[in-house]
Design goal:
binds uridine-5'-diphosphate-4-deoxy-4-fluoro-alpha-D-galactose, 329 residues, 10 helices, two-stranded parallel ribbon, alpha/beta, 13 strands
């Protein structure tokens, strides 16, 4: 089978390509390289530079490559940026997906797995969060992903496209080969920012608020290794190939760690004191996000391998230590 990976030069996309190629699949990548990196592209994947908003590009790609399925990562994903530039997010994430679906319908491409997010829930009503819980995003990024899910629902109903939406919790860690890892510019995520301290890239880590209603006052998140996320996409493709129904799944480990706990584990992993300073809360941060991934475990038979945060941070540290500037040097 051949799989087209849109956004295959990005963080989660590149890790999914590595898993697909490990399993002997033929992989085609399309990426506009706005946030992705050529160095993250697996050498055995066929690469096209292009944008999902360019319908002619997509049409010719589908006609030439005739992929059996699509995995769609091509989106902007920074919560803060989405609040100051909402139109960028609606344009790339929602309009881009509309163009993609139009091209898929016209070219009779029937199966797609795409990235969604815990940000579709907003402030959760239950912990752990179930897929059936209320979705009320508190930022533009989450809103565009929720709008994408709804778009898929109606287009699937009208045109018979089969889809799976995967709602990631906090993606982290790096590939075991050491070749690829997390690299965002600007970086806003907790673990890479913490690891910049032992890498002498920043003097300290800022803790955004210690007055939340949690045991140590800092926010709790569910950290899930990027390779575990990658494998869920492959299972989702297999699920669609069996003719199963369209579906939405949470992907997390089901265990919460506070910001302070993540910093403590990082101190242990790096053997560095990692100074931390308490700062005001960051706007829009829910106190606690923990996934129930029972549905993915039961239906997709997904089983995360990296269940221990220390091992996850070790994998991230291996990458950041050797690539202090990400892919840029
Ligand atoms: N944090 C700090 N200091 C920092 C950076 C982050 O204290 O320098 C805190 C945040 O306030 C938050 C936690 O660390 O409490 C995790 O923050 P991240 O930015 O790493 O991740 P988020 O939970 O904000 O965001 C993640 C994904 C988003 C997704 C969101 C869903 O990165 O794509 O979960 O809520 F939208």
């Amino acid at each position: 089978m051949s799989v087209l990976v849109l956004g295959g030069a990005g963080y989660i996309g590149s890790h999914t390509v590595y898993e697909l190629i490990d399993k002997g699949e033929e992989v085609i990548i399309a990426d506009n390289l706005q946030t992705g990196y050529m160095k993250a592209v697996h050498p055995k994947a066929k690469f096209y530079k292009g944008d999902i908003r360019d319908k002619e590009f997509l049409d010719s790609l589908f006609q030439k490559e005739k992929p059996e399925a699509v995995i769609h990562f091509a989106a902007n994903s920074l919560v803060g940026e989405s609040m100051v530039d909402p139109l960028k997010y609606y344009d790339n994430n929602l309009y881009g997906t509309m163009v993609l679906l139009k091209s898929m319908v016209e070219n009779k491409i029937g199966k797609i797995v795409f990235s969604s997010t815990a940000a579709t829930y907003g402030e959760p009503e239950n912990i752990p969060i179930l897929e059936t819980d209320k979705t009320e995003p508190s930022n533009t990024y989450g809103e565009t992903k929720l709008a994408m899910e709804k778009l898929f629902k109606w287009v699937a109903q009208a045109h018979g496209i089969k889809y799976v939406s995967l709602r990631y919790f906090n993606a982290c860690g790096a590939h075991k080969s050491g070749n690829i890892g997390e690299a965002h510019n600007p970086e806003t995520h907790l673990i890479p920012l913490i690891l910049q301290v032992p890498n002498n890239k920043r003097p300290e880590i800022k803790i955004f608020g210690d007055d939340y209603d949690t045991p140590d006052g800092t926010c709790i998140r569910d950290y899930i290794h990027v390779t575990d996320l990658a494998n869920a996409h492959i299972l989702a493709i297999e699920y669609l190939k069996k003719g199963s129904q369209n579906n939405i799944f949470n992907l997390g480990n089901g265990t919460g760690f506070s910001v302070k706990q993540v910093i403590d584990i990082s101190r242990k992993v790096t053997n560095h004191s990692i100074p931390a300073v308490i700062c005001p809360r960051r706007a829009g941060d829910p106190a606690k996000l923990i996934a129930s991934s029972e549905k993915a475990k039961t239906v997709l038979k997904w089983q995360p391998i990296y269940t221990d945060l220390e091992t996850i941070i070790e994998s991230a540290w291996r990458w950041h230590k050797n690539h202090p500037d990400g892919y840029e040097n």
